[in-house]
Amino acid sequence: MTETKYRFVPYLFPRRDPDEMRARAVAWRRELETRRSVRDFSADPLPEGVLEECIRAAGLAPSGANRQPWTFVVVTDPGLKRRIREAAEKEERELYERRISDEWREALEPLGTTWEKPFLETVPAIVVLFRHVYDVEEGQKRTNYYTQESVGIALGFFLTALHHAGLCTLTHTPSPMGFLSDLLGRPKNEKAYVLLPIGYPVQDCRVPDIGKKRLEEILVRVGG
């Protein structure tokens, strides 16, 4: 299979003043400090076009050999959301009751999570992100590279875009997730990567009072 050779063009990079750079970095970090995972969603509809723009932003993520090995499936149909909830809860109940270790269960306990996922029905939209293990072009299989890493970066772009736009979500990974391919009619080369309920929190939404590691705990300097 012949690959297209890219035309190289000038990169017009905006070099910023150091003070502006620091201010922008601090402002962005402070905005991300307010992002939380939400499990109690309002049924209020999403503004037209916002979710699509966030997916456009996610699609700008870098990927191995620029393969862009992802598909974002948006689900708003109430009946399909109900079927997704039922299938997810079936797998989650099995996970919580039989599959996870005592150590894993102990780690989850402070967060108050259970196998029940009612938010999958109340939320206005669900996005399922699929990873392309490979692609098929003109009947031939085409290899994709670093698909786990690439889709993970796209997910990060998507999470920050949603938060910046004013929406909440939850990275939900029911295990296993094969039922999503069946329910959403995705081809064999696509594997469900994460399920994301997207919307607004209910008015009285509560989240765990958790903290994040300090900079000194996650930063290691090497060199001068």
Describe the structure.
This protein has 224 residues and is α+β, with helices and mostly antiparallel strands. The protein starts with 17 loop residues before the first helix and ends in a 6-residue tail after the last helix. The chain has 8 helices and 6 strands. It has a single domain, classed as NADH Oxidase, CATH 3.40.109. The longest helix is centred in the middle third of the chain and has 22 residues, at 78-99.
Short description:
The protein contains 8 helices and 6 strands. The protein is an alpha+beta fold and 224 residues long. It has a single domain, classed as NADH Oxidase (3-Layer(aba) Sandwich), CATH 3.40.109.10.
Structural class computed from helices and strand pairing: alpha+beta
CATH topology: NADH Oxidase
Report strand %. Answer: 15-25%
Largest sheet, strands/sense/barrel: 4 strands, antiparallel
Order of helices and strands: HHEHHHEEEHEHEH
What is the CATH class designation? Alpha Beta
> Stretches where pLDDT falls below 50 for ≥5 residues?
none
Total number of helices = 8
Shape: globular
Domain tally: 1
SSE inventory with pairings:
Elements: H1 18-33, H2 50-58, E1 70-75, H3 78-99, H4 102-108, H5 119-122, E2 125-132, E3 134-137, E4 140-143, H6 147-165, E5 168-169, H7 178-184, E6 190-199, H8 215-218
Antiparallel strand pairs: 1-2, 2-6, 3-4, 5-6
Structure keywords:
NADH Oxidase; 39% helix; alpha+beta; 6 strands; two-stranded antiparallel sheet; 224 residues; 4-stranded antiparallel beta sheet
